[in-house]
Design brief:
Layout: H1 3-17, H2 24-41, H3 50-63, H4 68-74, H5 76-88, H6 94-97, H7 111-114, H8 118-136, H9 142-151
Length: 163
């Protein structure tokens, strides 16, 4: 799955932070990271664990002490990982979600694999949300697309005036 995680993560952060200078490229990378890494294991593994996501955030915080601009960019990655856990429903597999505080990973498939055909609906919803965001952020304009490509910025387009 791709569109579901991209759309839900981006729109959540737009709604929560409302920061036009946030780098959404790093957020998107973080939102896709858990499935990319755990796919190599062939099952739910460390990246679907909350303590690992919190540990990743801790590493970013410690590695960027005194470097605020770098920190602002890199924090988007663990935020994306945490949003992935939420929108993947990773919390429903306690053994994996709370590893290493549980007995182990077990043999749980990735949530995206366990959902099966439901993923088609999630991806369709993600595409719908991205289509809406494309209009909301004015990405039909080349200057706005370039701002996203070069700096990861999204700026909401003001609704038309009623005058």
């Amino acid at each position: 799955m791709l569109f579901w995680f991209v759309a839900t993560s981006v729109l959540t952060i737009v709604w929560v932070f409302r920061d036009p200078r946030f780098d959404y490229r790093f957020l998107i990378a973080g939102a896709l990271l858990p499935d990319l890494i755990d796919a190599f294991a062939g099952k739910s593994w460390a990246m679907h664990s909350l303590p690992v996501a919190v540990g990743l955030m801790t590493v970013v915080m410690l590695a960027t002490i005194g470097r605020r601009p770098v920190r602002k960019k890199l924090l988007a990655i663990p935020i994306g990982v945490m949003l992935h856990l939420v929108f993947d429903g990773a919390f429903s597999t306690t053994e994996v979600f709370w590893w290493p505080f549980t007995s182990g990973f077990g043999d749980h498939p990735l949530p995206v694999v366990a959902r099966g055909w439901w993923n088609v609906l999630f991806e369709a919803a993600g595409l719908g949300m991205l289509w809406w965001a494309y209009g909301r952020f004015g990405l039909a304009r080349s200057d706005r697309r370039n701002a996203f490509r070069s700096a990861g910025h999204l700026t909401e387009v003001a609704p038309p005036s009623s005058r």
